[in-house]
What does this fold into?
Amino acid sequence: MIRALLAASLPLLLLSSCGEADLPQRSLQPDDCLRDIHLDQLPQAIARCNQVVAAFPSDPAPRNERSVLLALAGNDAAACRDIEAAQRLVARAAPGSLDKLLVSEVAMRRRSCLSQR
It folds into this structure.
């Protein structure tokens, strides 16, 4: 009788122990700041970008992208501080090591910030 009860409950026991495992989370990437942006969720996008900047402190790209988000949020002063920081990182980078478009964007945004003063 016990053997029959165990045999009958074994499939249920096996099924109950089979749960879906959580999928591994994708690690942050330097270009994650402007990924899947929705303007109605700008504060969340800025918070995520803050994490990207913290994860890649010597990469100017996240600061450049966060400046865009901050400008969209109407925080021009913070956007310009990020561009100044990005410019310092660009200046420290080895020649030819950065994407030319990134270098150009940082320079253009920096000129815009300087013209607003």
Observations:
- The chain has a mean pLDDT of 86.
- DSSP finds five helices and no strands in the chain.
- The chain has one domain: 29-116.
